[in-house]
Design goal:
Distance between the termini: 40 Å
Strand order of the largest sheet: 3-5-6
Strand content: 5-15%
Structural class: mainly alpha
Number of helices: 8
Order of helices and strands: EEEHHHEEEEHHHHH
Oligomer: single chain
């Protein structure tokens, strides 16, 4: 979708309205085939994006929190070290055009068409990063999508990449939630973003613990 207007200072956006049903309002697994076809259309396209630069992005988000006077706890720093270690284990993967926020809340189904919304995170990335975004509605959904995407029982490497990317995403959203809490959005939006951050931290740790058990 295209943005009709973007307010640079506040980040508020107006976009063209898309008819259809948001995937989170459905049984998302019933649309696996359509979702995979859409993903592969993106991944196999000739679209050119900048590198998603996941860890550079995470560094930036951490920096925003520190600028607000936040000190990341030792438990987080240890988890970040593990994430860096596993990144080295997985090694380089060929990068393709990715949406990089391919969670069901950004997908709208209209008949046999799937509209993909909110492209501001798009970048060149490991295609399994997009699959991992399905973990936003349950990691089991991401695993089911992975099996359908690769067309076979996933290899250890494919499973590790899925766990790794989803853990990374949780670490990323941990920092986003901390920042939102620090700037007062917990009160303004009546949502406890500090608790949201704790949720994402716990999920990241659980995923990295499970990553270690994949053989």
């Amino acid at each position: 979708n295209t943005h009709a207007y973007i307010e640079v200072m506040s980040g508020e956006k107006l976009a063209d309205y898309v008819e259809g049903t948001i995937l989170t309002d459905t049984d998302v697994m019933t649309y696996n085939a359509l979702s995979i076809a859409t993903l592969k259309k993106i991944h196999q396209s000739d679209m050119k994006f900048a590198d998603y630069n996941a860890f550079g992005r995470l560094d930036t988000y951490e920096g925003y929190c520190r600028e607000m006077g936040f000190t990341h706890p030792d438990s987080y720093l240890q988890l970040r070290k593990r994430l860096d270690q596993y990144r080295q284990e997985i090694g380089e993967v060929e990068k393709v055009p990715c949406h990089c926020d391919y969670q069901p809340s950004n997908l709208v189904v209209e008949g046999d068409t799937m509209h993909v919304l909110d492209w501001e995170f798009a970048g060149m990335n490991d295609p399994l990063y997009d699959v991992a975004c399905y973990g936003n509605v349950g990691f089991d959904k991401a695993m089911q999508l992975l099996k359908a995407y690769v067309g076979h029982e996933p290899t250890c490497n494919e499973k590790q990449r899925l766990y790794f990317h989803r853990a990374f995403q949780c670490m990323q959203w941990y920092n986003v939630a901390i920042f939102k809490h620090l700037i007062g959005l917990s009160k303004d939006l009546n949502m406890k973003f500090d608790e949201v951050a704790d949720f994402f931290y716990t999920m990241a740790k659980d995923l990295l613990d499970q990553y270690c058990q994949i053989r």
